[in-house]
Amino acid sequence: MNTTTAKHTLTRKRVWIPAVATVAVLGLGGAGVAYAADGDNGPLTGGDRDRVGAAALDAVGGGEVLEAETSDDRGEAYEVDVLDATGVEWSISLDDDLQVVTREREDADDDGDDRYDDTTDTSDTTDTPDADDRPVTGGERERVEAAAVEEVGSGEAVSVERSDDVRDGTPEAYEVEVVEADGTEWDVTLGEDLAVLDSRQDR
Questions:
Q1: For residue 75, how far is the Cα from the chain centroid?
Q2: Ranges in the chain, pLDDT < 50
């Protein structure tokens, strides 16, 4: 998704793990997912997000959906970021039938032991996670989402990330993507006290 403001992106170490569990097929009721634009990834909302998220959670044994969007990668229809019950973050890709294509553990080798890496690449053993890499979950996420939706006036928060940027001398704390019912997307930046630091339509 193209944004009007600079976005911090989680560093992902792609760890390919064959999908060994069969995920139940959950019908999407025919049509594709709203808000996917001309080959670009688009956020999932409403019932589509719930169904796709449920399939992704099944692949890791439960947890919380952090972000879900369509995918234009070959053989993939959706990409879902989830936090499992043990606090480990995963990126799950699914096909049109909600079958698991890949499961990728986020930052699997930050400890440098390559336990989850099935390659011989050890070049990332000095990496350490930043404070803003921690996912926003639970009650904190609900409060952040509510503040962002209130700023826009309506819609659904589809992505929440921490931010360590500074805007006009004020530290940012959260970056939130909100999608209105008509598909209009907004980027809302909040401070630690959930005060709105910036809000603009994503064009």
A1: 19
A2: 1-39, 109-127
pLDDT in tens, 62-91: 999 999 999 999 999 999 999 999 999 999
pLDDT digits (tens, 9 = 90+) for 168-189: 899 999 999 999 999 999 999 9
Domains in the chain, please, with CATH? 1-130 (3.30.505.20), 136-201 (3.30.505.20)
Please name the helix (run of DSSP H) or strand (run of DSSP E) that holds residue 162, with its range, or none.
strand 156-162
**Phi–psi pair at 110, nearest 5 degrees:** -65, -25
Residue 115 identity (one-letter amino acid): R
Count of alpha carbons within 13 Å of 170, Cβ hemisphere only?
14
Amino acid found at 158: V
Residues in contact with 190: Cβ distance below 8 Å, sequence separation at least 6, in sequence order: 144, 147, 148, 172, 173, 174, 175, 176, 196, 197
Q: What is the DSSP string of 71-111?
A: --STT-SEEEEEEETTS-EEEEEE-TT--EEEEEETTTTTT
**CB contact set of 128 (below 8 Å; sequence gap of 6+):** 110
* Distance from C-alpha of 164 to C-alpha of 121, rounded to nearest angstrom: 29
